[in-house]
Hints:
This protein is of the alpha+beta class.
Amino acid sequence: xxxxxQQRIEPSYPKNRTALGGPRLGPVGWARWxxxxxxxxxxxxxxxxxxxxAAVPGxxxxxxxxxxxxxxxxxEDTPERARWLDRLGMFExxxxxxxxxxxxxxxxxxxxxxxxxMRQHARSLRAQPPRAPARFDRLPVNRQVELEADPDDVVAAxxxxxxxxxxxxxxxxxxxxxxxxxxxxxxxxxxxxxxVAVLGVIVAVAVGHLFGxxxxxxxxxxxxxxxxxxxxxxxxxxxxxxQSDIPSFTVRLDDLRxxxxxxxxxxxxxxxxxxxxxxxxxxxxxQPRQRGFGVNDPLSIDGTSMFLLGNxxxxxxxxxxxxxxxxxxxAVTFLPQDNTYGSDGVIKVPAAEPSLGFxxxxxxxxxxxxxxxxxxxxxxxxxxxxxTAYEGDLFxxxxxxSVFSIDTESMEQVMQADGEPSRMLLRPxxxxxxxxxxxxxxxxxxxRWGGMLVRHDPGRLPALIFAGAALVGLVLMLGVxxxxxxxxxxxxAGDPSAPGARHTxxxxxxLPKGTDPGLDDLVDGLVxxxxxxxGARVLDPGPGPARTTDDARDEDEA
Length: 558
């Protein structure tokens, strides 16, 4: 049986409490808890780290928007693994839902962190510095001296000195002998600026991704190219960009100048020194204009930039049949494979019957050694074109293929009279017969080509501005120190005419926000400056070091 006394001492839980826990949160309570967790600084740092980790697969696996050819090759090499990776979005990392969710959560977290702190910082800017504490000896740095001066003069000197040091002063009451000052508000302002700028960079990158586009082209010297959706070698459009948004203009590559180091020895030999060109830009309704460009000096056309990414050689080749009629005549792009610009390429002649294909390499400076034919220098010193010939169906079943390779499954290699595979070495001006009476091939000359990246990114300039603002905020956050300084002047007591009546006490204490190794020097400097500004004389404390509040407290405890 439960007694009346036991009933009185037994706890009585409200209906909204569990037996052993606190109150049930409910939907609103859980939502508030989740919001507080999401908007905490720790969560923002975790999301920022997670975003960096999530970007790693984008540099490990080929991306469709950057290199669709390598993605297709990945599927051909490892089809099963590629299908699983494609389901996880590894070939489109930066546009995948899981990557987008991370940076959206980061944006929400930053907004939730910054907005309350901005309101709090705005209130602190309008508020006065706090009142001076009653006991200065509890602050980490404090000093106390006795002066021979008028108390009002010392207070005025303290306010003037702190004002010159750009401290904000609390309004003084009539006859008040206490001064409260604070400075370093730019530290918190820099902190907020940094976080707002990071948020701005994320938004700018998102705008550039949604409304931007990029394409890659190869333009040969003395060749004109017109911008259109179908004229790019590769084209990647943002989710909110249509093909009709691509501006129309024409660019003619008048000249491309590339120079290599030929005098130096060792590792510097053959290193590039000059990459620059001249192009003519034409737009409808405008006069053509010629402009120079370089690696870090792109062409700017109506908000679109053209960057020089690479260069190489394009041999001008002419192929004739056995009757002397021209079957092919054009500059063929060969892609560099090493630092000496040894290049690979193919020449396709579909007009021949059966079709002809030539595969091989271009060597700017021919060198024949134990390793065979190589290029010893990237400049055009002794250019040579080394080819072998194939005949058959160049485009089996009409399948599309790269302009830099030949599908030899439905073709046969052309053989020489001795039964060996055909090999042809041509220098500029050489004309050789294709084995089997298939006509002739001539290397007329060699020109250059430039690989251009055409890009429209509306978020680029805002991202640069926000990145600069983030740097400014970081400098303020790390360079400015938040400090509070309190000054109390003790008026002399007793008969003004008595000895020592003008002995005025000056106490200064300082409080930092965080660590501040220079606070002791600040307080010592304030003591000297206030004493000098008030015209006071420091009373001799006697032999030994000056007696501070800390010393007095130690003596009292002893």
